[in-house]
Each structure stands twice: as C-alpha cells, then as structure tokens.
Design goal:
Elements (H helix, E strand, L loop, with lengths): L1 E3 L17 H6 L10 E2 L18 H15 L8 E5 L1 H15 L9 E5 L15 H4 L9 H14 L24 H7 L17 E4 L7 H13 L4 E4 L17 H13 L7 E2 L6
Parallel strand pairs: 1-2, 1-3, 3-4, 4-5, 5-6, 6-7
Helix pairs in contact: 2-3
Organism: Dacryopinax primogenitus (strain DJM 731) (Brown rot fungus)
Keywords: Hydrolase
Protein name: Alpha/beta-hydrolase
C-alpha cells in the first residue's frame, strides 16, 4: 500500500507518531494480501502570512516519487494499492489521475482507497442546506473549515485555480443543477468555464468510504456520482453516524475496526462492487 496522509496539505506527516499512522499500520493486520505499507512524507504547503512554499504540484510529485520507488523495488503496479485520507485522499486522486492519463496504468493498478477524501477545494458545494451547514453539529470541522480550510486552499493551489480537475475532481460543474440562487451561482462559478470536468475513465477499482454525517459528505457523493458515470468499479460505503476522517480516531469504536476489516476484505477481493449507504455492521 502507498499511503498519503491527511492534514489539509499544511500539517501531518508520514512519521509513526502522526495520528494518521494508525491507518496504514493497522490495515496490514486485516488483509491476507497486504504485506507492507509505504507512507509518503510529501512536502506541505504554506502561504501568507507564512512564506509561500510547496504549492501544487509539489505534493503530487512527491507522491509520484513514492510510487516510482515501489516500482524500483520490483513491485508491479498491480500489487500497489494507493490510499489516502482527507487531503491525502485528494492527493491519491491526483496521483491516480496522472497514472491513468500519462502512463495508462489505470486498469492494472491494484486499487484505490479513498477515506473521507477532500475532493472539492472550490465553493461549489457552499449553498443553503448543504452538508457544510446541515452537518455542522455532527462534525469537528466546524470552524476549521473556514479558517484552516481557506488557508489550505490558498497554500496548496498557489497560482493554480481550484477548479483545476487535478485539484477539485469532486466539484459541481456550471452545467449541473445548483441548489442555490442565480446570484450565488454567478459568484461561485467564476473561472470554472476555463476547466474541463474530471474524467474517471479507465480508473482502477476503487473503495470510497466517508462518514454519513461529515460536513463534506455532499462533495464526496458528487465524486461518487462522477465515478459511477464513468463506470469505475466502485465500492461505496457510508459509515452511519460518523464524522470526517473517523477512521483516525481511537475513540470511534467499533466503527474504526469495522472499517479496517472492510478495507482488508476489499483488498483481498472478498467484497463485491456495491453502492451502499446507511448503517454498516461488522
């Protein structure tokens, strides 16, 4: 497994002491096929008032270096599972996009595991009754979304538009139904016409797991819809009553262990492709 940690692109690390290290370290114990995990310590971004550092595509280049390192060890693409949580899920999407479109490796990759992926860095999912507001009482992202979120977008995007499909593959597009007003639409979609929608054609089999009450569940469901549109071999499971990135939290039991077992079964080919929502049981 090639693992990419979360942290909004501005914090976190691949070190075993990081709170996200539980995921790659314990995934091995729940799969018969998974033998080792490489967690990439990709460069983090920063912006004003801090020095501008490591905007896109720095983290993507580091993730690609990690993938190429595994190839140099004699590991075939079909043996590599790319995985990431939160911002790491965003980075996993970008890495997979490169491997599919630049190297035509999509059909032969071992798979893609996306855990609460941050898939829309635009404001396209900011509208009345969106999950950012609807689920603000059930997720810890309240407050972080406005403060750290906007800073992270500025730091990671640098001079690149967040509408770039390498950055926001889960964004709503100008031609799609928008729940807000025409005035809100006009403000949100500035610059969107300059970018094509993300494509998921020829992608590897994918496991997509969010929590049902996280604040970014709307954009994750949009991502799911785009993958289904392009006929990705997708297994989608929402964990009922769980917040963003719940799989990193020691106190989220038994849900966390259930999820690890589910990932292991999926890696081992014991889970059929399915689209499921609602309560998940052991």
């Amino acid at each position: 497994m090639l693992f990419l940690h979360g942290g909004s692109y501005i914090t976190g690390s691949a070190h075993p002491s990081d709170f996200t290290s539980f995921l790659p370290g314990n995934s091995i114990h729940h799969s018969h096929k998974l033998r080792a995990c490489l967690s990439v310590d990709y460069r983090l971004s920063s912006a004003s008032p801090n020095p501008l550092a490591n905007p896109f595509p720095a983290a993507l280049l580091d993730a690609l270096s990690g993938f190429r390192y595994l190839l140099s060890l004699g590991i075939s693409p079909g043996e590599i599972i790319i995985a990431g949580d939160s911002a790491g899920g965003n980075l996993a999407l970008a890495l997979c996009k490169y491997l599919v479109e630049a190297e035509s490796l999509g059909p032969v990759l071992g798979g893609l595991v996306l855990l609460s992926p941050w898939s829309d860095l635009t404001d396209s999912h900011h509208y009345p009754d969106c999950s950012l507001y609807r689920n603000y009482k059930t997720d810890y992202l309240l407050g972080l979304e406005e403060s750290m979120g906007s800073y992270s977008v500025h730091a990671y995007c640098g001079g690149v538009s967040p509408w770039c499909p390498w950055i926001s593959p889960g964004s709503l597009r100008p031609g799609e139904p928008f729940p807000g007003s025409e005035e809100e639409r006009a403000q949100i979609y500035v610059g969107a016409e300059d970018w094509d929608d993300a494509s998921f054609l020829h992608w590897p089999r994918t496991l997509l797991i969010p929590g049902s009450v996280e604040m970014i569940i709307d954009e994750i469901r949009t991502l799911k819809g785009k993958m289904m549109r392009d006929r990705v071999r997708l297994t989608y499971r929402e964990w009922e009553g769980c917040p963003h990135d719940f799989m990193t939290m020691w106190f989220m039991e038994p849900e966390r262990t259930q999820m690890l077992r589910f990932i292991g079964a999926w890696i081992d080919g014991e889970v059929n492709e399915e689209i499921a929502t609602g309560e998940t049981t052991d």
